[in-house]
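Morning - zinc ion inputs below, output right after.
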Amino acid sequence: MTFFSFMRGLTGALYRERRFTAEQLRAHRDERLRTLIEHAKTRTRLGAEKLAHIDTSLPINLAQIRPTSKAELLERFEDSIVDGVPTLEEVKRHVAEHGGGTHLCRGRFTVATTSGTTGRVGYFISDRKDFAEQNGALLARILRHRLAPRDVLRFSFGRRYRMAMTIATGGAFITRLVADVRPFLTGAFVDTQTFDIMAPTEALVHQLNLFRPHYLHGYPTMVEALAHERLLGRLAIDPEFISLGSEPVSRRALSAIARAFPRAQIAETYGATECVAIANQCSAGRMHVNEDLAIIEPVDAMGRPVPVGVASDKVYLTNLVNRAQPLLRYELSDSITLLGDDCPCGSPMRSVRIEGRADDTIFLADASGQFSAHPPVPFEVVFLGVAGLRQYQLVHERQNQLLVRVVSEDGVDAAEVARGASQALTAYLARARLDAEVEVSVELTDSLERTAAGHKLRQIYSKVPRPALAG
Ligand SMILES: [Zn+2]
């Protein structure tokens, strides 16, 4: 039963945070790591290779384990999974047929896709029980200082608590899984509704206005676009709680959201498709790493650990929960700064600062010159659906002129892929009733250059200044 896994995750996460000292928490983490290493070493080929020299009877030094990149994981997908877990071929077929989401592969495995910050499509698989456990723990950490009995009572009588999840409902996206695999929340007290971010903004705004959520969850860039709508007066909701997830939050997005929704408490969550609950915000406003669920190592471009207070070039992630596809020192291209251990909230977990997402929100003008905000995530959804696409970049070159750079998979007709990308983007613009106003061009290329400033590909960016109201 996933319900029990969910509850175990939720109660365990609450208990450990409230009762454990930092030492106890780290001992718990180390024990989980030891178990994961033994499991990966004996049950996967990649683990057997990378972990053969690790003696789990001794204290474990992660630096002795060779990191894994997304490209390596994709190329060696079959070597990364334990017996009985679907192969990459089957996973791809499953996503193509069912779009992932709540439809479990072989009735047991959750499948999620991402393009992440490398612009390359990745597939991740998890046993539904492990996923439910992570998901329960995530909820406990989102509500960490708010899960008080009086709050629950406030919502149980008199009014139902309305939760709006603005997510990509169509694809195999991790937030979709998080929204749907919450069995008890859909019960008597809470009315959870999902809102498709692929719907035209006008329709999304209309539906949210009808629903009037107390709680709004979304990608920060998506909620930033909604903030823009709120400031323009088209969106009329007044949520008391906003959670932001799936991508790092930029200062610009946060200030726009706080300005548009002054009554709302804002809780950031930092996660990745590879691990949904990496860090969550506390009542003091800091992000604490969920050290009992994941280990993150901020490192420089060469993979060396960076000291406290210094922003990393990338991060190695170890997911302590997922056993179907064990991920040890998996490379994420996010930038993180470790902070000191002195948070006033008293959490035993380390706090970090996460640098904002490098992708831009694109502002497009309609025929009457009115701007609408187009955050990166819907564009990702658009391009993830293009067959044979290996990598892409979307550039807002001049006002209402979009350029797509496309790298195709080996052995497919590149011109066909370019046509697919162009059609998919045009269809998106048509839904937003902007196809007549916005010009799309596609360029085929062998590889996408990375910007000099960092190691992140600026996958979606705008060369056009923002309209004034967007903040
Ligand atoms: Zn704190």
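Note: The domain at 1-357 is CATH 3.40.50.12780 (Rossmann fold).

O.
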